[in-house]
UniProtKB/TrEMBL annotation:
Name of this protein: Knr4/Smi1-like domain-containing protein
Species of origin: Gimesia alba
Top-rank lineage group of the source organism: Bacteria
Chain ranges of the Knr4/Smi1-like domain: 21-133
InterPro entries registered for this protein in UniProt: Knr4/Smi1-like_dom, Knr4/Smi1-like_sf
Signal sequence segment: none
Amino acid sequence: MNEQTYEAFYQAHVETHKVLGCSENEVSVLERMHGVRLPEDYRRFLVLMGREADIRHLIGSHYLFPQLNDLQQWGKELLAGCQMQELPENSFVIMMHQGYQFYFLWNGAVYYFLEGKTEFERRFDSFTEWFCC
C-alpha cells in the first residue's frame, strides 16, 4: 500500500479525525531499543497515528507509542505471574487490555495471550488484519 492508502485505511477506523503520528526516527529508535524490526504495516500505523488516535475497537486498551515501552514490561510481568513461558525472541507487544490480555507481533503475525491460558494463540497473519478485526 502507498502512504495515502494506508492513511485512508487507518482513518476509516478512527472515532475522531484527530490523530498524531510518530516520526520515522522515533520508530527506528524504538526498534533499536527492543532489538526488533517491526513489520512495515505496523511502522506505517505508528507514523500515521501512533501517538494519538481514538480507535473505536481499542477503547480502554493501551496501544499508543508513549505506552509501548511499558507494554513490553507489562507483557513480561503478566506472563511471569501466570508461570508462562517468556515472549518469543524478536516479538513485540502492540496492545494490552486491562492488564489481563495482550497481543504481540512475532515474525509478522499477531499472537494473543489471555491470563489463565497456558499458551499463545496465533490470531492474525498481519498487523493490518488484526487492526481490521
